[in-house]
């Protein structure tokens, strides 16, 4: 889909600092002093004493959330950070994307190598660490930026090939994302994946969202409710003390517009395991990878959260059992990566990198990838704000026992 057609927008954090941001410094030094009516002593005293700066305003407190509810449900053997906390495997093969086109055989070998390196076991034994043959496995792809930086179909092919070769029926595999139309745009169709489920958590009418039509009948029922309301579990939710806008375009995109972000019933009622398949890209000075792919993909009514809780959502939503106890594997697609202009696609900043990253711990994975994207941005001359706020959410996850974020504790293995 062309950028002009893209209705959905995932906004960067309010406090992100981009390339055009700058820091203003002011002062009297070097500007000269007006001496009229003053003694020399007074002037000397003025230059020797730094000007009194007004106190910085206290940071606005973050809205309250129901994070504590997530920990009322006991963890299981499958819970984050999984069997390999703090372990991240990076597989690089320069032959993966010759002339910008994916080589399916090379990518398949990379996927298999990454899985074996992560677990230290064969593919079949690795399967047994994460799944049983009765599991319903959801592959959470990222379809944003189709044709450029969306999850490569060949990566998904390789993952499906592994699962099926280990005895998981094709009918037990579901490729999913939050928006149904995005899956189709990115090539995830029943024709491309026969026997595999393809499910979006919700419907969104692009034409209505873009103001091209006043007909809302495709998504809005006569009683004023969104047609996708039944697809969300109103008993399992992430609550934040932030109201969603009440306009129709917001409701079209977000299904609900109160203070609750409900988990899709696909996660709460159907899937028993999840493999997260994000792509390597930025959002401002932060990243839009493993934790954002699932944090903003598993629930509805999210745009209200961007300004006050943007990165917190990437920790707090995965803390709830539909993600925490089911998302057993993460594979970040860095075959073609994007270091700026995200989270939507921007060909100016996309480049072939021929890498895949593997982890059961999404927070360790995101810390490794954050470090790499900062290095790339500097290399390309993009101004980087290295304020700790862009990674403090990952450390928050470590304090909650969901993963490892301390680089000194992360085992980053390059293959």
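Sequence proposed for the structure above (415 residues):
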């Amino acid at each position: 889909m062309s950028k002009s057609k893209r209705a959905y927008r995932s906004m960067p954090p309010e406090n992100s600092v981009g390339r055009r941001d700058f820091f203003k410094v002011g002062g009297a030094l070097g500007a000269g002093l007006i001496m009229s009516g003053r003694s020399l002593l007074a002037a000397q005293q003025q230059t020797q004493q730094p000007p009194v700066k007004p106190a910085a305003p206290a940071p606005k407190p973050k809205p309250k959330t129901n994070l504590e509810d997530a920990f009322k449900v006991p963890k299981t053997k499958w819970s984050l950070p999984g069997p390999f906390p703090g372990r991240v495997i990076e597989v690089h093969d320069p032959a993966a994307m010759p002339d910008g086109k994916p080589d399916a055989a090379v990518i398949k070998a990379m996927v298999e190598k990454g899985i074996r390196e992560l677990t230290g076991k064969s593919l079949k034994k690795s399967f047994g660490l994460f799944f049983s043959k009765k599991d319903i496995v959801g592959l959470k792809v990222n379809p944003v930026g189709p044709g450029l930086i969306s999850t490569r179909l060949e990566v998904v092919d390789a993952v499906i090939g592994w699962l099926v070769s280990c005895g998981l029926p094709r009918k037990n595999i579901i490729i999913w994302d939050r928006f149904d139309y995005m899956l189709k745009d990115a090539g995830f169709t029943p024709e491309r994946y026969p026997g595999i489920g393809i499910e979006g958590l919700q419907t969104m009418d692009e034409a209505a969202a873009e103001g091209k039509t006043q007909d809302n009948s495709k998504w809005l029922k006569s009683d004023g409710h969104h047609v996708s309301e039944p697809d969300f579990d109103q008993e399992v939710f992430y609550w934040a003390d932030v109201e969603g806008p009440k306009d129709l375009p917001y409701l079209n995109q977000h299904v609900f517009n109160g203070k609750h972000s409900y988990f899709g019933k696909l996660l709460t009622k159907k899937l028993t395991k999840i493999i997260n398949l994000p792509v390597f890209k930025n959002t401002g000075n932060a990243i839009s990878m493993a934790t954002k792919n699932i944090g903003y993909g598993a629930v509805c009514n999210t745009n209200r959260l961007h300004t006050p809780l943007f990165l917190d959502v990437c920790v707090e939503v995965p803390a709830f059992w539909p993600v925490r106890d089911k998302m057993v594997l993460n594979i970040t697609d860095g075959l073609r990566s994007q270091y700026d202009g995200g989270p939507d696609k921007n060909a100016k900043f996309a480049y072939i990198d021929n890498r895949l990253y593997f982890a059961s711990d999404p927070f360790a994975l995101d810390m490794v990838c954050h470090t790499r994207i900062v290095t790339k941005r500097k290399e390309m001359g993009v101004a980087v704000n290295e304020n700790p706020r862009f990674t403090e959410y990952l450390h928050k996850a470590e304090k909650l026992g969901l993963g490892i974020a301390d680089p000194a504790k992360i085992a980053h293995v390059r293959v």
